[in-house]
Each structure stands twice: as structure tokens, then as C-alpha cells.
């Protein structure tokens, strides 16, 4: 004879889950602007014609924002990354941006970036 199995109901989630990078830990999300996923990096490297060369105009380590200007049409693009792209991409640094897969290449480092707009003050 088997013992009766008591069903434990699932807990309801009351708040949105926060990424660990919001609390100073390593990034636990693959959403745009967070950790770079292996497949995302491979897709970006498999489509080399979609990379755009750019120069970093501004970067702010505290907020995670990086502003780059493309070399082909001088478009200014605001990017956000919570994992340290702003610390690596200092003003004047040449970078490459793959907008389709949200990847910023700074030397040998690759970052998952979110295209953003800064609020006008």
C-alpha cells in the first residue's frame, strides 16, 4: 500500500525577478544589455557584413551608457550594458556594433547591448 501523496501548490510570483547585476553580482540574464549568450555571439560572428565600425564618444561606468558614432554615416547611437562595456569602451576607442544581434565588440571583448535613448535634460 502506498502512502497518499500530498500536493504542494506552486508559489505565486509577486514581484519581477531582478538580474544579479542590479545588485553588484554577475549578470544572470541574457536580455539585451545583460550577459552575452554563446549563440548570440556565434550569430554575430557568422554575419560579418552586418558589423558597423564606430568610435566611442562618451561612456559612463556608473549608468552603463555608451554613446558611439558610426564611421559610415556619422549616426550617434546610445547603448546600455550592465556588465561593464562602459568601463572597457572609453571615449575615443574604436568599436564595432552588430545591431541585428545587439553585440558591441571592443577589441577582443564582446558585450550584449541594448539600444537606448537618453532623456533630454
Features:
121 residues; mainly beta; OB fold (Dihydrolipoamide Acetyltransferase, E2P); 7-stranded antiparallel sheet; 2 helices; 7 strands
- Contiguous runs where pLDDT drops below 50 for at least 5 residues: 13-17
Number of strands: 7
Largest sheet: 7 strands, antiparallel
Q: Radius of gyration, rounded? A: 19 Å
Return the domain count: 1
Number of helices: 2
The CATH architecture assignment turns out to be Beta Barrel
Oligomer: single chain
CA-CA gap between termini: 72 Å
If you had to describe this structure to a student in words, what would you say it looks like?
The protein has 121 residues and is mainly beta. It has one domain (20-116): OB fold (Dihydrolipoamide Acetyltransferase, E2P) (Beta Barrel), CATH 2.40.50. It contains 2 helices and 7 strands, in the order αβββαββββ. A 7-stranded antiparallel sheet has the order 6-5-4-1-2-3-7. A hairpin with a 2-residue loop joins strand 5 and strand 6. The radius of gyration is 19 Å and the shape is elongated. The model is unreliable at 13-17 (pLDDT under 50).
Amino acid at each position: 500500500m502506498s502512502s497518499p501523496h500530498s500536493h504542494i501548490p506552486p508559489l505565486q510570483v509577486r514581484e519581477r525577478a531582478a538580474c544579479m547585476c542590479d545588485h553588484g553580482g554577475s549578470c544572470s540574464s541574457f536580455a539585451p544589455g545583460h550577459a552575452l549568450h554563446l549563440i548570440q555571439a556565434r550569430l554575430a560572428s557568422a554575419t560579418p557584413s552586418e558589423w558597423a565600425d564606430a568610435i566611442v564618444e562618451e561612456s559612463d561606468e556608473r549608468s552603463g551608457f555608451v554613446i558611439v558614432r558610426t564611421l559610415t554615416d556619422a549616426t550617434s547611437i546610445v547603448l546600455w550594458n550592465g556588465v561593464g562595456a562602459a568601463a572597457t569602451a572609453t571615449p575615443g576607442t574604436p568599436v564595432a556594433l552588430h545591431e541585428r544581434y545587439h553585440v558591441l565588440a571592443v577589441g577582443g571583448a564582446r558585450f550584449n547591448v541594448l539600444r537606448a535613448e537618453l532623456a533630454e535634460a
